[in-house]
Write a structure and sequence with these properties.
The protein is of the alpha/beta class. It has 2 domains: 176 residues, 3-Layer(aba) Sandwich (Rossmann fold), CATH 3.40.50.150; 67 residues, Nuclear Transport Factor 2, Chain: A. The protein has 6 helices and 11 strands. It has a 7-stranded mixed sheet with strand order 3-2-1-4-5-11-10, sandwiched between helices. Strand 7 and strand 8 form a beta hairpin.
Length: 256
């Protein structure tokens, strides 16, 4: 496992106000109260913990030990036993758990963090190997609102922007986004998230996280799923019932 690039930024994840209100959406897609669920990129357990109360068992994978440490503390505080929820360090594009799941999810745009085709292929290979008969998977990316050429022009016109600012326990926290470079062939934007806190009126840089953001149009997102041999079952444009291609998100449910 490579160095944990999210180690310093992990403490900021749960305070971000930009995370969508998607927990009820995933709860409503549980196939049964005893369903086995796999969450890819479970992070600090934002989705995993509430789902643990509504399904039979949930297993989370994440490649950041810092994120998983936060998640484990939450599981312990909530007295959720390992028979209901388990998390482990792993690569969501290359894993073998020895069991299958009724539902596999990757909330909050985890899929678009896979910037290479080899990673995308690996994720779909693992999904196929871990889906139970009749099981489904839900993936999500952001909706770029237009073709890639338009998105590229918008990206190239800006180098930095503010994402959010909040006050927690009297301390101001801020996240800014710096745009580094664009890969026009694979439609990937490479950027930095800069996390700062206010100390005596001065913004102190706490952490910098470099991540990729792969862009998919609605048609491209469906096509990459079909190209890997899966059948699309449902599509949404967001978590409030928006039509696919018209809302802020691209959310697709598919099966083998």
């Amino acid at each position: 496992m490579s160095e944990d690039i999210r180690a310093e930024a992990a403490k900021y994840y749960d305070v971000s106000p930009t995370i969508p209100d998607d927990i009820a959406f995933y709860q409503a897609r549980l196939p049964a109260s005893d369903a086995a669920v796999l969450e890819l990129g479970c992070g600090t357990g934002r989705v995993l913990l509430p789902l643990a109360a509504w399904c039979g068992f949930i297993h989370g994978i994440d490649r950041s030990q810092a994120m998983l440490t936060h998640c484990l503390h939450k599981l312990q505080a909530a007295a959720i036993p390992p028979t209901k929820a388990r998390v482990e360090l792993g690569d969501i594009t290359d894993f073998a758990l020895g069991r299958r799941f009724d539902l596999i999810i990757a909330p909050y745009r985890v899929f678009q963090l896979l910037d290479t085709d080899a990673q995308v292929d690996g994720l779909f290979r693992c999904v196929r190997a871990h889906l139970a008969p009749g099981g489904t998977c839900i993936l999500n990316v952001f909706h770029p609102q237009g073709d890639f050429e338009g998105v590229q022009q918008a990206w190239e016109s800006m180098t930095e922007r503010g994402r959010w600012e909040v006050t927690i326990d009297g301390v101001r926290l801020r996240c800014e986004e710096r745009w580094l470079r664009l890969d026009p062939e694979r439609h990937v934007l490479y950027l930095e998230l800069i996390y700062r806190r206010d100390v005596g009126g001065a913004w102190i840089e706490d952490a910098v996280l470099q991540i990729p953001r792969r862009c998919y149009t609605p048609k491209e997102f469906e096509q990459v799923i079909r190209d890997h041999g899966f059948r699309i079952i449902q599509r949404w444009g967001g978590y409030a019932g928006e039509r696919y291609g018209e809302g802020p998100e691209l959310v697709v449910r598919f099966g083998a």
